[in-house]
Design brief:
Blueprint: H1 2-20, H2 24-48, H3 60-70, H4 79-99, H5 104-122, H6 128-138, H7 141-146, H8 149-169, H9 182-194
């Protein structure tokens, strides 16, 4: 038992040390990916969909940016988790609001708790998904008025934009590889070289 604890501490120290190393190239690509990803979503919000009174940018995308641009090797940052986690959580959030529209004390915790369980069952756990579910319940009247359209726009469309940017910026250099599935990474790298 003592050996296992000692080994676990050694591994933890190594991981923490490795995660805190200053790698300016890594920081540059993380910054650029997040800047472009959120920038594109914001551009669509402010320039393209303003005449439709649509919402395109939600707060949980900021947290997703941390994962898909800054912690690209995390299982929680993979495309299945990014898209599946947000979309399932949005569905749960809208459903919770529709089931309990005047009971915030019930709809908010139900949305978050149920989205966590559904993400766990489907192996799409993505922590910002909890915020996506909560936004569907406590968001502005404009968001609540979208109903299930909230799942398509802003959630799915925003995730697809972030994923497209992540596939480009996380595979530009040989030091970064996203997603962790090597077969998919080879396809993305081949596409980037040809383009």
């Amino acid at each position: 038992m003592k050996k296992r604890i000692t080994r676990s501490l050694r591994v933890s120290k190594y991981i923490i040390y490795k995660e805190t190393l200053v790698d300016y190239k890594e920081h540059f690509w993380s910054f650029l990916g997040a800047f472009i990803g959120i920038g594109l979503i914001t551009f669509f919000q402010s320039k393209v969909v303003t005449h439709q009174e649509n919402i395109f940018l939600i707060g949980s995308f900021g947290a997703s940016s941390v994962l898909v641009y800054g912690s690209i090797q995390s299982p929680l940052a993979q495309p299945r988790n990014l898209i599946g986690g947000h979309v399932l959580s949005a569905l749960i959030g809208v459903t919770a609001y529709k089931l309990f529209p005047d009971m915030l004390w019930l709809s908010a915790p139900f949305a978050v708790a149920m989205s966590i369980v559904l993400m766990q069952i489907t192996k799409t756990l993505h922590p910002p998904g909890g915020a996506t579910a909560l936004i569907a319940v406590i968001g502005s009247e404009k968001i609540k008025h979208l109903g299930y359209w909230y799942v398509i726009s802003p959630v799915l469309t925003g995730c697809l934009i972030m994923l497209a940017v992540a596939l480009v910026f996380n595979n530009i250099t040989s030091h970064r590889s996203y997603p962790t599935d090597k077969r998919f990474t080879r396809i993305v790298r081949t596409f980037l070289r040809r383009g």
